[in-house]
Amino acid sequence: xxxxxxSPEDAKAIVRRNTEEVQSKGDxxxxxxxxxxxxxxxxxxxxxxxDKDGVxxxxxxxxxxxxxxxxxxxxxxxxxxxxxxxxTYHGVHRGEFLGIAPxxxxxxxxxxxxxxxxxxxxxxxxxxxxxxxxVRRLTEQAPPSSGEAA
Length: 150
Hints:
By secondary structure, the protein is of the alpha+beta class. The protein has one domain (8-139): Nuclear Transport Factor 2, Chain: A (Roll), CATH 3.10.450.50. It is built from four helices and five strands; from the N terminus they run ααβαββββα.
């Protein structure tokens, strides 16, 4: 892909803004600026389209399902036009997610994303998220209280 070459720090800043301002704070006007119109998600979540619309819907569903949804970035690395980020998402399950009714449980799950930056915009994404761990946490039986038999 031919495009404007950014410094590794500038490329990481674009991805960090997506994580901190769009995903964590719900700034969807910024989403429109950060993501290329021809964006491609190479690892879309179940039942999501692999394009900009699919990612917008996913982000909105996550924010609706998990009160105070936010991410903590542990590290980022840039290699050419690809930025890799390891982060942990946090929130409280207050809305339906993946067909699971709200549980009120506090969740966290780890994600590793790789995002290609072309002409200052996010153009491609590859990612691995611990959705199995998240679903397990949301569907596990609560332990009995101290007064109940196990």
